[in-house]
Recover the amino acids of this structure.
């Protein structure tokens, strides 16, 4: 029996995260049969506004706000059961009953991971990533040490007890080695997490089989990335990264299905730059200019509420996103936020000593010493709602020049422009 042709789309971040993936995923999700998270954890935050109502999501894919798609949390995601249950109840209170499946192979964040995260961040000092203290790095560490606990284990009390004994003692030893004390109780954790397992049991499934069957039937699947390229543990600004692979290539290992072809790989790029956490940031703004851009763009973390660092668009970063993800197109978000600036610099290369660099360096010393090389483009004044309604051709010429300059520099087409948080504030070219 031959397989029907499936429509496979991936949405990934092309910067430091917070690019507007939630809105764009929601924009595409209405036509999908499945919307899938394949990496990361509740350190990610997606904000979606529908009919003036704001939804803040951390684990459940943004497509949950539609009636039709099934939301999938893949095995590449690490799951805090308490946070997931809170999010399910949050959605139910807002009138949304999630059609949700969680991989039985997804690893579980436990209280000692959060404790360990705090200790590890303090130990790392200037080399820390700016952790959200959600336990993400330690749970991925346990996964690689091979004493992690998976969602399926919460449904098997004896296996859970056996694994918890080893994992708890290991993490307690590590926390104390970092000079921290702990008042965690293993028995309390055991009983609490068994209860979490009972609540989540209807959602736990072998999602690899579910997605494979959907693929064979020719159903539409939308993959929702978290964070962005510069936070990828292999390709990002290491060690100032997250603890998972954020690139589209991780979809296969993060879901358990290898798809023959992904039809569209869409990179989400903010029209400027924002970053939560530590690391060098060559095009960063400071002072009044930074505050103006931050407040105008509402640049405060969905997960932590922390003020984001902001700067001008960095095309060195976006070029890497195009290459490593195999991007077929770009969605440019928050272009409206740059309205009113007389001049808009765009970083197209770095200067490091006597060298000009156009691709992201692996060298941390080079990145620390990188100075932005800017192309200064003319601003476009204020935009009006009727311009957005009429489409791209009605936008000011200087704005269209800004878009074209980006396309020429990264060799990738910008197909969609987001001009606000609402679904209708979107221009398709």
């Amino acid at each position: 029996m031959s397989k029907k042709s499936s429509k496979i789309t991936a949405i990934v971040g092309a910067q430091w995260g917070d690019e507007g993936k939630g809105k764009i995923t929601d924009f595409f999700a209405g036509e999908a049969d499945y919307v899938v998270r394949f990496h990361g954890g509740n350190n990610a935050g997606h904000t979606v506004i529908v009919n003036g109502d704001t939804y803040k999501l951390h684990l459940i894919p943004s497509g949950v706000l539609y009636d039709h798609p099934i939301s999938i949390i893949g095995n590449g995601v690490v799951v805090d059961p308490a946070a997931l249950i809170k999010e399910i109840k949050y959605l139910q209170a807002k009138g949304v009953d999630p059609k949700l499946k969680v991989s039985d192979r997804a690893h579980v964040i436990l209280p000692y991971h959060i404790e360990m995260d705090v200790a590890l961040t303090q130990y790392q000092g200037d080399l820390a990533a700016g952790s959200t203290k959600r336990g993400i790095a330690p749970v991925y560490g346990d996964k690689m040490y091979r004493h992690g606990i998976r969602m399926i284990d919460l449904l098997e009390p004896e296996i859970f007890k056996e694994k918890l004994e080893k994992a708890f003692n290991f993490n307690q030893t590590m926390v104390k080695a970092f000079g921290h004390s702990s008042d965690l109780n293993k028995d309390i954790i055991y009983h609490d997490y068994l209860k979490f397992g009972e609540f989540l049991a209807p959602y736990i499934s072998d999602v690899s089989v579910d997605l494979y069957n959907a693929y064979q039937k020719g159903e539409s699947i939308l993959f929702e990335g978290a964070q962005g390229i510069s936070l990828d543990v292999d390709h990002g600004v290491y060690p100032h990264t997250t603890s998972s692979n954020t690139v589209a290539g991780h979809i296969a290992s993060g879901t358990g299905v290898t798809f023959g072809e992904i039809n569209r790989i869409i990179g989400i790029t903010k029209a400027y730059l924002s970053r939560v956490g530590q690391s060098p940031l060559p095009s960063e703004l400071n002072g009044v200019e930074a505050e103006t851009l931050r407040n105008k763009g509402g640049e405060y973390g969905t997960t932590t509420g922390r003020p984001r660092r902001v700067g001008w668009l960095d095309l060195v970063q976006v070029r890497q996103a195009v290459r490593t993800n195999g991007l077929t197109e770009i969605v440019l978000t928050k272009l409206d936020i740059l309205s009113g600036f007389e001049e808009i610099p765009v970083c197209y290369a770095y200067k490091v000593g006597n060298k000009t660099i156009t691709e992201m360096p692996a060298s941390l010393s080079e990145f620390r010493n990188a100075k932005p090389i800017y192309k200064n483009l003319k601003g476009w004044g204020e935009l009006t709602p009727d311009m957005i309604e009429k489409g791209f051709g009605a936008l000011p010429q200087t704005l269209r020049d800004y878009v074209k300059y980006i396309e020429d520099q990264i060799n990738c087409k910008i197909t969609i422009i987001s001009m606000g948080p609402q679904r209708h504030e979107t221009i398709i070219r």
Notes: The chain has three domains: 8-102+205-266, 107-200, 268-428. The two ends are 38 Å apart (CA to CA). The mean pLDDT is 92. DSSP finds 13 helices and 19 strands in the chain.
